[in-house]
Each structure stands twice: as structure tokens, then as C-alpha cells.
Design brief:
4 copies of one chain form a homotetramer. By secondary structure, chain A is an alpha+beta fold. Chain A has a single domain, classed as Chorismate synthase, AroC fold. A 5-stranded antiparallel beta sheet of chain A has the order 1-2-3-7-4, covered by helices on one side. In chain A, strands 9-8-10-16-11 form a 5-stranded antiparallel beta sheet. A two-stranded antiparallel sheet of chain A has the order 5-6. In chain A, strand 12 and strand 13 form a beta hairpin. In chain A, helix 1 packs across helix 3, helix 3 crosses helix 7 and helix 5 packs antiparallel against helix 7. At the A-B interface, strand 1, helix 2, helix 5, strand 11 and helix 6 of A face strand 1, helix 2, helix 5, strand 11 and helix 6 of B. Chains A, B, C, D: This reaction introduces a second double bond into the aromatic ring system. Chains A, B, C, D: Keywords: Amino-acid biosynthesis, Aromatic amino acid biosynthesis, FAD, Flavoprotein, FMN, Lyase, NADP. Chains A, B, C, D: This is Chorismate synthase.
């Protein structure tokens, strides 16, 4: 089966292949009356856009979003959402399909080439077709709309580790994130990564990364137990991003190494009797519902599978071959995954906000 | 919102609280003609059942499953599924509600007490009510049905780490898993864990754990890109289990520390032209679709939040208090999470098998 | 496929066969804090309950509902919903399975015997198994919960036609509905129907009926275009009831015979500028959204297929046979369908109210 | 809420307003390997296309469909579906927005103007915006894809009644349907309708219609009881079409006037032991599952609400006004509804076929 819709009440459906004429997303269930123009979306597209530094793929895409439905000028002449489906479309402009002619028959290891053929019996091999990370452009566009639904929440993602080299958590400065090509909040780490990533790029190798995402301002009460817990929706959302292999909430796997005492997030009441937490090991959720603390999520990206070193593989005819990928690829796909992680966080939270409102009337 | 249904085609819906009269699960979309009696389900219940060793909660539950619908004797007199909803019910027999009277008003840190109140304005505080791990009994029952749909798949979960102490992967012997109270495949580690877990139990502390689950025999082609990828469905499923904080597929976060060369799973053709893999860093998926290799998933469980050490907390009236939990709790909830992880793997795979069949006609 | 869940946000899932040990319904997404005891549900069960007059089946069922989850005493000691799944169970007490032994092999024309076998390859033939109208007991129970979510709405269903004999619309008196065994609002029609239905009963024949349902108090704005319009959700809901063959909103098929002028529902403003309608041909919806007028729906029930006259049929072995049904059946199944129609109206409206709130925040 | 997706496994999502730049549909879950080009879709678009006779709206739309994703050339060079989302887009070319300036503030009675405002607080008033029947162009495009999934089924819809004037059922000749502008299978009725419809057109009035749709070749076994019965899915699908007010399966409301004997569809075995039916009162379903007989459905369309006669109405400011519609409207919207009814039948059946295959493996 293919299943290209995400969300319960605030839902989006993406379509499009890497080298087709365009790709897009239909957003359904968006509240009406929210100001929305293409200018509100474009900055998020630009953050994800390829070809902006030598550390990411040199594919050049304008990634201009067009809003084709679901908005109208209100009485004040401001273009707002109408509550009907919002279709966002992005044309593919730089599709060098010839780059991919060699892989029409040979399966690139680590890519979805073999599995798409095994499942569907046919695939659009150009640039990975539907399995290309290019699909994430549609999510980033949808994420911009989702953010408008949750103005109370501030979402920030950054790369906290590349090739095993971690940031110094005491050196985190969120203002740094936009000052380097790695979405890195630690200026020293960013310096080191220049060398590490450039080395991988030059040698035709690739590196993995870990992206952390923090959502500040989520009120207590969002989440839909048992099978749409905030944690599980986030895990599901993040694991749909290309090249992801792991998701953690709060301390994640590290929590498995703590004792109950170490892991406890003690609470004391503030002047209104609301909890003030001494720590946030839990990452902002308990029982699948937000606690009022920042929601913290970490996502592991594997190294890009496209490398210059030949790897043993097979052809669609079942013969042995070797594959080395010569396309314009990211040496570290996790970097450009950062805006996508932010978008998925926004999309999950917007959906949960509306779900919560449906059942309880609360915000 | 509450959302208590999981699955796309093979769906299940659970109901019930820890200290209500009973709990259960309605399974919908199950293929007809599958032999199913209570005897087929009970062994899985017994594996999860509490009170079996000093390393788990001393709550005593018979956990007898009753099949209340969806089965009928076929022409040969064998009781089989009829394709209609299967309701499995388990009565709660050992509900010492008095144990929980103290926490009616005081929020246990790390538990869902505060968040359920924040969300719903009311909660059944007895034993955690709906947020209790007792709910997982219903999933284990459903998982037994799911297994019958995927006889080609063998699912094995085991604990690979408790309190930071890992098994020796070279010493893994799956036959060991049932020979110790920890679902541990490494007999030496099991010996060590006796001391570690008993120490935590005696001191009223608790420990985290990591559970690994392997599904052998999954054919290439299962998974529903982009938003119901095999990986994301597994991540979602696992993160709905109580106390989970992280999920990995294949090498998971470790993959983020490898180079593209190290992470590559080289393929060579077998005599039928099907791929033979040199390694399984990917954990059996590519592009969200199974590769034909074993599907490998790891789940992080935090230490049980119920500990004897007092922790600062607040009351439902917003006053400061301290909470120490005196109930009959698991010193390491990850242990009993193991059969639940197995069940969720089975439930996801059964759903994906039917979804795949719907779209492609293939198995 | 089987698909036993209805609703988008306020969802219910039914299970159980006619002659199994019990049947029930799991309600998910119910708002918390709503007073709910078995006493609130039972009157609706009693209205649907068989065996109350000679005009309906003589099967005797106590139809006692038990609430097994999802409620708890609030601070004032009132039992209220907690927002978690509500499981309602009804035991089957009068199951004369022997009555059905003859039809184990012979397909009753007009019943689902043949189609269930064609679809599933097996069926619980006792009393129709899953296809029995007994399943509607679960809906009526769920409907009682739905009503509590929409206290602003008053739902009334009545039989407006039996065997082609219609009520006099000028003689409608809603107080009459509970005064006769036909849910008939016209006392003269009720008198006539005594003879008509009794005649059918005595001769072993059966009659069709039309049930009308009116929901007063639905505010303007409920409905989820385009594919969950209020009209389409109602049509879907009503057509899931056993023996239904048609659904109309407002003037329905009669509207197809009117001109645009005749069919127009003129509006004038009230003192608040809200519309006052001159007529309600539309039945309370426009564009799939409620207009603020009463929502009016009519449902056609075919005559019960179980009749004493032998009808040509086939056996499960493919041989010719004749079937006459000797069980305890309703001569006019539409009568007991009336409370079910009411329940489905309530279930659709409750769902739409919550959906509307999710997107717009409005009630 | 807005809900713009239909289907369970074979799902489609429409977007677009009447006077926006374009409209479209994303089809998800389509089986791979099905030949599909724009040429396969266009004939169905042309059948629905406006401006083809004086009996329908004079809006001129090319209704050229573009396939923007989900297809690729197979090894033989034939363009086939790939199993990924298929996006079909249709540009709006003849949007005379000025026609609608008057209704920006005045609510047209019978239209969704008031209800969209009541629900969303804003609407695209140009041509009805999202509530325009123009949305059905997207469905007809999707329906063409659905037909390719069910080649065993032949779907034929026709108008059986306009303004209360019915066809002679003995005179039905399906070859006639394409020979007149009314999709009328009775050449004499078509003659009469010329006068009737032209009269309504000239006087600025409008007429209702009834459309009948027959699906031949549906095997026994399709349908998903209890809440996605074939009947209820059809009723839901048909009632989402603009201007529909009623749906019948088989004899529909007429069945409510028959006795059990009259309504019985007797069966005798054919040489393979399969049933041969003496009649088809049931319209091809029993218990919500197809019987193997033709599936028969009838849909009531109200008269177009846009008429030249002034009707009392209100403005968005709550003032009294009168509305007469001068746009280019259909005097009988049911005529152009005919291809839409066919499309919805195809879309429901394709979904049910895949659902059936998911659970049972059968076709």
C-alpha cells in the first residue's frame, strides 16, 4: 500500500516525484481566518533549499511555492485561509535526469530502488522518484501552515552531532543556528564540522547526523492516548523522513541507563499551583500527553547512501554489479533534514492542538 | 483527544482501566478462516503476566482471555475466525484499590497523573487508570491473533540492556530467553542482572532497559510509503508502550556515527537473482519498505517512575508535597515490556501484510 | 473487509453476534466530565428492546447495559466520563440456537447468509450472526452517550408509513409516538396499522416501513464538506442499519419533482440578522452544512425477509431448496428500527459537533 | 471541519475552488502497473464538461486533465501507474468572476453561501467557491482511474426522471444514452425533455432529476460490514454530490411498500451451484455485501437553486434582500450529475475491491 496522508484532524497529503513536473501537498482541516500568503511559506522553503553551500547537494531548485486553493481575501483585504483544502505546489526546475540513467537497472545499496521494485514491480528511477528526499519540500511548505495554527509554540531544530562529533551542550547559542551552514548552535562545533563534512565531500564519502528539535510553549494537555500519544505521533512523523533510523523523546536511550531517582522530574508549585519542573528528562511528555515543559525530540540520520566508493549490488535482472553514485548528493543528509524535522514537529503539534480542542473544547 | 485504535486495515481498539472490572480489545479486519481459540492466546498472556518472579510486580493476575465474538466452528469443527470483529476480554481480578488512595490527590512524578488531569479534568487514579501498563495485556492478546496472520514471520524480542549493562552480542543464544526471568539471551548477563535488579528492588529504586525485537521471514515489499512506512509504523507502535522513550531501526543512532561506506549493506545475487546482503545495518528496511532481511527494532524503556525515594511534587490543589510510591511495582518495567514489544511488531506486520495485499495483490 | 468503526472524532466500534455470549460497543473520543450511568442508557435500550408487543419479534432480551470502562466518580461523587474509551456490553440471554439449525446450510433469500459465505467462506448462521439486527442494540447504547454530548439538540424519530399506508402529516402529534407500539405520531394511522401489521404477522408475511427523524436545535455550521457533509454522513449512517434501502434529506426524491421556485427556502432576517426560513425543503442542510433549521431525514426499510411463504433458494452445497423462516421475527422490522435511526442521528451529530469545534473552535 | 478525502484503501483527496487558478485530485493507494495516460481520462471529462448543449450551463471549460505524478513508462514503454500518489490537475480557464460580484454579500437561497459563512466566517463567493459543482470535475477524473482498477465491472448511469417526467422502463435502450443531451435511455422521453428543460431554461426556472446507476459484473463478496457496507458507502458517496437529496439501493423507497413475498429475490442454482436470481429488488446487495447481481443505485437531484425569480434572502450583514441569479447555470443540474454518479460508483467499487482483497485475498 501507499499511504501519503498524515494527521488525524489537521491532515496533509503529499504527491510528486523527484523528477516529475512538480510536487505538492494538500492540507485539509486547517482552521479558517489565518493570514497566509506565499511569502509566509517561502522562508521555510529557502532554509531547506539545496545548493546553498558546498556542504549540501548542488542541485539548484528555486522551490517557489504556489498556493492554488484554500485562501481568500477577507473584509480587510488580507488573504486568509478559508477552511477548505489548501494546495501548495512547487515546480521541479532542475531535473538532470541523465545523471540517473545508469541506475535505471542497478539498485543503489541503501536506497529504496530494490524495495520499490520488489513492492510495486515498477519505479520512477530518476533521482529516486517518490522515495527522494525532494518530497520533504512539500512537508516544509505544509509545516509553515501548521506553524500558523500554533503561534503559542516556538519550534527550533538544530544539528547536535555529525559523524559522531557532538556539540558542547554548554556552548549552545540558538542565535548561532542561522550563522553557519550546519544549523549548528555551537560555533566551535560548526568550525570543526566544516572540515569533517568537507573531507567527506571531497572523498566522495558521507556522514550521519543527529538533529534535535525543541518546541517551547506547548501547554499541558496535548496528546491522544493510547495510540496517538504525542510521543508516538512524533516518532511516527520523524521516522517518515528520509534516512532516519532512530527517534528519542527527552533523554531517550540515555534514560534507559538512569535510575528512577536520576530520571525523576521533580515538581514544585508556582504561584498559581501549576508545576515548575526541576528537570526535563521526560522531554515534555508524560503518559503521551504534554506536561507544559518544552517538548524535546532527537532524530538520527544515517549517512547518505550515495557514495563514490563502489559497493556490491545487483541489477533488476538479478545480476551482480557494483554501484557508485555520481549524482549531486548531500555528504550529510541530516543537515538539510533539520528544517524537515521542524516542519514535522509543527505538523504533529497543530494536529494535536485541534484534536485536543475537539474532545475537550480546550486549547 | 483520545485515540485508542491502531492499524490501517487490520485494526484493534483497546479499552479498560487498571482497576476497572475488565479490559479488552476489539480486533477488526482479521482475515476469516484462521484457527483461533483461547488456548492459542493464553501462552502470550502468561509471558507478560505479572507476579512470576521477584523481579517484576507482585500483582497477581490470572489474565485469562475470553473470546466473545468473531469465531465459529467450521465444517471440520475447528473454531476459526469469521472475518467479523473479535472481542477479547480479560477480567481484572487483583485490584487492591486501597494501595492508591494516597495518590488520589498527589501527582506521582513521571506518571501521567498530572497530564491526565490537565487534559481531561478528571482521572481514574486507581493504579494509573487508563495510563497503566495493564492496558498492554489487551495488546498482547491482539498480538497473538496478529501472529496467526503472518505465520511466515518469526518474531523474537529480548532484553539487551538493563541499567546500562549490555549483553555480549557474541553470546546471544535465543534459547536462553525463556530460561531466565529477564528475557535475556545471554546467560552471563542474566546472572549479572539478578544482582542488579534485585538491588534496585530492595532499595526501592528502579532501572531502565533496552528491548530488541527481530522479525525473521518478512518478505521484501511490506511497508506503505510515505506516511505509513514500515519504520514509522513500528516507531509509532513502540512509542505507545508505557515508559518508552526511544526507538531505533537497525543500527539506529549508531548509524549516525558511521560513514556511508561503513553503513552500506552490500548485495550480491543468489541463484534466483534475489539479493543476499553482506550486513544489515538498515535493520531490514529501505525507503520504508522491507528488504527481505530481518526487521530489527530496539526500544528504550525508562526506569519505572514508581520509587520509594520521596520526590518533590504537587497536589491537584496546587500545593507542594512529596511522593513515594508504595504499590506493587516493577523495579524494571522494560522486562515485562518485552512481550509487548513482540506483540506490537506482530500487529504492525500483520497490518502491513494486508495493506500490501490490498494494493498489489501480493503477499 | 470488515469495518466496524463509525465516526471521525467521536468514534464507536461494535462487536458481537446474535447468538454469541454478548455484544458491545467501544466509544472513543467522548468528551470528559459528562454524567453517565447505566440508568442514562437503559431507557433507550428499552425502547428498542424486542418482545414488547405482538407486532415485534417475541425474542425476550433484557438488554441490560453494563459500563465497563471510561467513567469515574468526580469530586462531587457523580459518575462522569473520563475521556477514555467507554465500553458498553450487553449479554445475550435468550438465544434459541436450535431455531436456526435448518438454515445452517440453506441460504435465506434476502438475508446476508449467501453473501457472508461468498465473502468470508464461513458464517455464524445462528440468528444471522453478525448480520443480525441484534447488532443495533450496541448502537442504541452508543447513541445514548452521543445524546449527552449534544444536549442542545432534540432528536425525534417516528414511523411515517407502513406497507404503503402513510400518516396524515396534519395529524402529527409527537406525544402520540410513545402511546402506540408503532412509534406512530398519528393516532388514526396507529389504529389502522394494528390491523395491517397483525394481518401480516398472522399470515407469516411482512411489511416495509419508512422512518422519519427530526433533529431540532442543530446550530448552523455543522458538517464537513466535501466528503463528510452532514447529508452524506447521515446517509452513510442510516444505510448501515439492517434492512434499509433508501435515505432522503428534506424533501428527498420529492425535491426532484419540484421547480427551483417551489423548492426555494426563502430567508428573512430576525432581529439579530440571523435567517428565518419560510420553509424547509432542504431538510436543514445546504452545501453539506447545517442551516440552523431542523435536520430532517427519512429512511426506507424493506419488509423483513423472514417470511413463512416458501421461497426458492440454494444450499451452501449449490443445490436447489426452498426456505421458509420459522423463527421469532418482526413482521415489520422498520418499527424497531425507529430507535436505531434516532441513535444514528445522535451519533452523527455528536461527531460533527466535535469536528466543527476542532477546526473552528466554535460550538 | 473540512474533510476532503474519500475511500478506505483506494483514497482520493480533492482541492480547488470554482474560480481559483485550478482544481485537482490526489489519488492514493492505486495499484501499480495499470496503463494510464491523459487520453484515458479525457473522455470522461468531456462527458461531464459544461457548455455542450443549451440544456446545461454555458460556462466553457476545456477541462484538460494533466497527470503530474504517479505514472512512469514500463519496460515496454507503456505509461503505467507506479503505486505512488497520482495527482490530476485541471486548470480553470473560463472564470468570469464579475458575474458573482452581486452575491459577495447576499446569500443565495438553497446555496451554501450562508452555511459556509456560518461555519468558517469567510468564503470564496466567486461561483460558489469550494461548494461549486465544479469540484466534481476532479471526481470524474479520479473515477476514470478507478474504472481501470475494476475492468470486470461495467458502469452505466442515466437520467430516469426530469421534473417528475419518468422514462418508460420498457423502452430503455442503453445505446440511446449518448444520443441525446440528457443521458436518457428512452428516446421518447428525451424528446419530451427537450421541451421541458428548454421551457425551464427560457423562463429562468430549474428542474430536479433522478439519476440511476447500474454496475454490472460486480462479483459476490464486495462490501465491508457493518460500517462500510456497500450500500452505505454508495449512499455516502452519492450524497456528497452537489444538489443530491436522496439515495436508493435497488427498489429503495418502493421496497418499503412491498410485502416480504413481493420483495423476495428467489434463487436457483446454476450448473456451478451459484445462485441465479429471479429478480433484483435488493439492487445487488444483501447484508451490505454484493450478491453477484447488478448493483443498482438511484440518486435524487433537487432543482438548481439558481433561478431568475427573485427569492427573499438576507445579506451577510443581516439585512433583508432579494436574490435572483444571473450567472450561467444549469436549468437541470441532475443532467450533468450523471457522469459524476458513474464516477462515484466506480470510486466506491474500486475501494471495496481492494478492501476485500486485503482481508480475504480474494478478488
Amino acid at each position: 500500500m501507499s499511504f501519503n496522508t498524515f494527521g488525524r484532524v489537521f491532515r496533509f497529503t503529499t504527491w510528486g516525484e523527484s523528477h516529475g513536473p512538480a510536487l505538492g501537498v494538500v492540507i485539509d482541516g486547517c482552521p479558517p481566518g489565518i493570514p497566509l500568503t506565499e511569502k509566509d511559506i517561502q522562508p521555510f522553503m529557502d532554509a531547506r533549499r539545496p545548493g546553498q553551500s558546498k556542504y549540501t547537494t548542488q542541485r539548484q531548485e528555486a522551490d517557489q511555492v504556489r498556493i492554488l486553493s484554500g485562501v481568500f481575501a477577507n473584509d480587510e483585504g488580507v488573504q486568509v485561509t478559508t477552511g477548505t483544502p489548501i494546495h501548495l505546489m512547487i515546480e521541479n526546475t532542475d531535473q538532470r535526469s541523465k545523471d540517473y540513467s545508469e541506475i535505471a537497472k542497478a539498485y543503489r545499496p541503501g536506497h529504496a530502488d530494490y524495495t520499490y521494485d520488489a513492492k510495486y514491480g515498477i519505479r520512477d528511477y530518476r533521482g529516486g522518484g517518490r522515495s527522494s528526499a525532494r518530497e520533504t519540500a512539500a512537508r516544509v511548505a505544509a509545516g509553515a501552515v501548521a506553524r500558523a495554527i500554533i503561534p503559542e509554540v516556538k519550534i527550533t531544530a538544530f544539528v547536535c552531532e555529525i559523524g559522531g562529533d557532538k556539540i558542547d551542550r554548554d556552548a549552545i547559542n540558538l542565535d548561532e543556528i542561522t550563522q553557519n551552514p550546519f544549523f549548528c548552535p555551537d560555533s566551535w562545533a560548526a568550525k570543526r564540522w566544516e572540515q569533517i563534512v568537507d573531507g567527506a565531500r571531497k572523498s566522495g564519502s558521507s556522514l550521519g547526523a543527529v538533529v534535535e528539535c525543541v518546541a517551547d510553549g506547548v501547554p499541558a494537555g496535548w496528546g491522544a492516548p493510547i495510540y496517538a500519544k504525542l510521543d508516538s505521533e512524533l516518532a511516527s512523523a520523524m521516522m517518515t523522513i528520509n534516512a532516519t533510523k532512530g527517534v528519542e523523546i527527552g533523554d531517550g536511550f540515555e534514560a534507559a541507563r538512569l535510575t528512577g531517582e536520576q530520571n525523576a522530574d521533580a515538581m514544585t508549585p508556582d504561584e498559581n499551583g501549576k508545576p515548575v519542573y526541576a528537570s526535563n528528562h521526560a522531554g515534555g511528555t508524560a503518559g503521551g500527553i504534554s506536561t507544559g515543559q518544552p517538548v524535546v525530540c532527537r532524530v538520527a540520520f544515517k549517512p547518505t547512501s550515495s557514495i563514490l566508493t563502489p559497493v556490491d549490488s545487483i541489477t533488476s535482472d538479478g545480476d551482480a554489479t557494483q554501484v557508485r553514485t555520481k549524482g549531486r548528493h548531500d555528504p550529510c543528509v541530516g543537515i538539510r533534514g533539520t528544517p524537515v524535522v521542524e516542519a514535522m514537529m509543527a505538523l504533529v503539534l497543530a494536529d494535536q492542538k485541534l484534536l485536543h480542542r475537539a474532545q475537550t473544547g480546550g486549547e
